[in-house]
Amino acid sequence: MPLAIEDYAVIGDTHTAALVGKDGSIDWLCVPRFDSGAIFAAIHGTEQHGRWLLAPASPVRAVRRRYRGDTLVLETEFDTDEGTVRVIDFMPPRGEAPDVVRIVEGVRGRVPMRMHLRLRFDYGRVVPWVYREQGDLVAVAGPDAVWLRTPVETYGEDLATHAEFSVGPGDRAPFILTWRPSHLPPPEPLDPVVELGATEGYWQGWMSACTYEGEWREAVVRSLLTLKALTYAPTGGIVAAATTSLPEALGGVRNWDYRFCWLRDATITLQSLLYSGFQAEAQAWRKWLLRAIAGDPAEMQIMYGIAGERRLTEYVADWLPGYDGLPVRIGNAAAEQFQLDVYGEVMDALHQGRRSALKAHDPAWGLQVKLMAFVEEHWRDPDEGIWEVRGGSLQFTHSKLMAWVAADRAVKGVEQFGLSGPAERWRALRDEIRADILTHGYDEKRQTFTQSYGSTELDAALLMVPLVGFLPADDPRVRGTVAAIEQELLVDGFVQRYTQPPEPGVDGLPGGEGAFLACSFWLADNYAFAGRHDEARELFERLLALRNDVGLLSEEYDPKAGRLVGNFPQAFSHVPLIDTARNLTSARGPSEARHEEHNRRT
């Protein structure tokens, strides 16, 4: 049986990331990039599909984990009958190649240890040829080569590398794993102790720019570190998660590849970085965004590769059993969908960047004018919506809302920054879209916005209505929508995206999934801006309690099983956490909070 998703921690080097289990096993690592083939894929199968175990040889009585301060250096302590041992896991900031450093330290007693390294390239499919070269262990197959360097004696057995050793108080046993293209010479050796200090210094130095000093600093800092861990440093792109195909419901079929960059994440990510003091990262993300969407607005995709790649062909890695027996998907076919809302997200992201002095006057405005020409012509078209349904296009209300955002931010670009554009035409478009939403996307009888025009279904995405400035949080139509969502979409106090099971054919998939954490944070925001501060804080604290022992969140939460579900760690959960902490910190009163949020968003 695989570990529960919450039993993993993440380490990374801002090019890729590894998942380390509570049992001491690295079960997922793609090199050299987030979207490369995995050399450890046991999370989607068994140890035969690649893993690196470093743990006590005798039964473990207790496990404790923590990150060292404000860093991505992970410490795991194992208590056994013989004593206590500590394993330190980290990936140094990328130099010439990706490295994983593991240091075993004796704490108490003398603890026998075991090391099992089973390398499998191309998502567990390829068994490498392993040999020794000047004391190093080298594994090679096709374009991939991996070096293991350690003073500990190792041996080969059952197509894997093993070691047995023991550590006492003060003892250290280091292991360094390095990947390089197989045609290149061996990597330069690293000093593990020096790299440990340098890695701690790197993360602490980066976090020193953080300006958040509110009540929930620990949670915000860990979320910011996670966001940085999901950043591909060479381009500034930020992946949605480090994994693929971890299911949104145990036993369900909703399992997708999230190792790509979604335009939809752009606005909230940019705002979180800017608010928290990370101007350089916000600037890099904005540059990635502009490069990715450059070209014909009609060809703009909802997501791109970490360097802006457009072709994200989806296939099933059918040689892997999959987490919980589900198919493992590589690539994401949703990249080919038409989702109208991303035009509003992009316009909003660039508007927020200007408001924060990220190049108020630059060529981006010319691209935005072209985006607006597309929105003017296509805002009435049906689309697949924010949830990327696979049951056909509809007139989704949230999509129309974001088309309104696009027009509104275009008008603001002229009004607030003196940029050149047909402001009167855009104002008329904004008014037309607003009237259309209020006529067709609002159910007067039930007093709630609906998922799509003519539907009776609810959609938690419509919690964004006050957050984007369309209506104030105390408007009766917003209050009615919140009340309907509380009545129909709350499951054990957390928000589902939409009714489960949905109307036939809406998302093209069987019903059943966990509560969507981003939507739950949005509900807390709505409470805060409506003056329901106690309820906002109570919901936020319950959401914080869902984090695992090292402060990480996946995409969703299964209230019945009491488990995190979905890809992990998930940017679209950690970014709303940062936003909600900010909103609660600044919500001094109903009117002041609404005024501050309205200014920030619009």
From TrEMBL:
InterPro entries referenced in this protein's UniProt entry, alphabetically: 6-hairpin_glycosidase_sf (IPR008928), 6hp_glycosidase-like_sf (IPR012341), GH15-like (IPR011613), Trehalase-like_N (IPR045582)
Spans annotated as Disordered: 583-602
Gene3D superfamilies: 1.50.10.10
Lineage top rank: taxon: Bacteria
GO molecular function: hydrolase activity
Domain named Trehalase-like N-terminal: residues: 4-152
PANTHER family given in the database record: GLUCAN 1,4-ALPHA-GLUCOSIDASE, TREHALASE
Name of protein: Glycoside hydrolase family 15 protein
Source species: Cryptosporangium minutisporangium
